[in-house]
Write a structure and sequence with these properties.
There is one protein chain. It contains three helices and no strands. The protein is mainly α and about 80 residues long. The protein has one domain. Helix 1 packs parallel to helix 3.
Length: about 80
């Protein structure tokens, strides 16, 4: 197994441990492993899956990490709103 494979597996495992109410397929989308094709015109959304066959493993690791960073930022932001000053 390549190093990147192990990283991807560990990131998915950690995410699912923290979000055990989600189905596996939901986790793949929420972590941006699988994505929809880009929409050209917002009036006509494209709900077809993007083919990730040629995505480099490191690119997938990067997408997952960016998404996790985004989730953490949103969590901190929401926590700061709920704390009275």
């Amino acid at each position: 197994m390549k190093k990147e494979h192990q990283i991807i597996i560990e990131l998915i495992k950690s995410y699912l441990e923290k979000n055990s109410d989600q189905r596996f397929g939901q986790a793949l989308f929420n972590l941006r492993i699988n994505e929809f094709q880009k929409t050209v015109d917002p009036k006509y959304p494209n709900y077809n899956l993007r083919d990730i066959h040629n995505d480099d493993d490191q690119e997938i690791v990067s997408r997952i990490q960016k998404q996790l960073d985004w989730f953490n930022l949103q969590k901190r932001k929401n926590e700061s709103k709920s704390c009275p000053i």
